[in-house]
Amino acid sequence: MAMFRSLVASAQQRQPPAGPASGDSGLEAQFSCPICLEVYYRPVAIGSCGHTFCGECLQPCLQVPSPLCPLCRLPFDPKKVDKATHVEKQLSSYKAPCRGCNKKVTLAKMRVHISSCLKVQEQMANCPKFVPVLPTSQPIPSNIPNRSTFACPYCGARNLDQQELVKHCVESHRSDPNRVVCPICSAMPWGDPSYKSANFLQHLLHRHKFSYDTFVDYSIDEEAAFQAALALSLSEN
């Protein structure tokens, strides 16, 4: 296993490369966070493997006892996560075309521009809308698992959606050492209802933190909380 991890680590390229990608169209992708898939925002880099993420996106990984890099899955020391100042400089230096109006924008300002670009808003408005399934008179089988809400495997608290389950377990069971079955995975067709995760909290934060049909909207309080958490993490280095 150690040899395998060593090979994986050596094969992974440090992010992002020193120079810009050929052509402006590839710049945004080159400087995008692997987690949120948007241009880096306050980027930080993991010291051991060199992979770069938005500071906010990496925060959940820093809250578990034995964090793994979300990209290469190698363990890392949370005290050796630093601001990616070289990436910030590159974000301020390179420009790329907006995906909507095609105007060239500095990467550091791309997120702000996209949020107010009328062309991007128009594209989003024209995306296909979700069409609900037509009502049916057929009986609904009683043995179909509920994949909308879940029960906490630690205390049995019920009717928690995916994000509420993550929040509940982080706040109430952070130090619980018991091995438990993930209720989200076990509800899936491929899930094993008998498999108990050795580190359920880390599993939740890595696999089920995000609901992919929603976007995160930062409030002033969330921004302040992020600043404080990141400052605390970096001050321990």
Automatic annotation (TrEMBL):
It is found in: Cytoplasm. One of its GO terms (biological process) is protein polyubiquitination. Signal peptide: none annotated. SMART domains: RING. PROSITE patterns: ZF_C2HC_RNF, ZF_RING_1, ZF_RING_2. Pathway: Protein modification; protein ubiquitination. It catalyses: S-ubiquitinyl-[E2 ubiquitin-conjugating enzyme]-L-cysteine + [acceptor protein]-L-lysine = [E2 ubiquitin-conjugating enzyme]-L-cysteine + N(6)-ubiquitinyl-[acceptor protein]-L-lysine. Residues 33-73 form the RING-type domain. This is E3 ubiquitin-protein ligase RNF166. It comes from Neotoma lepida.
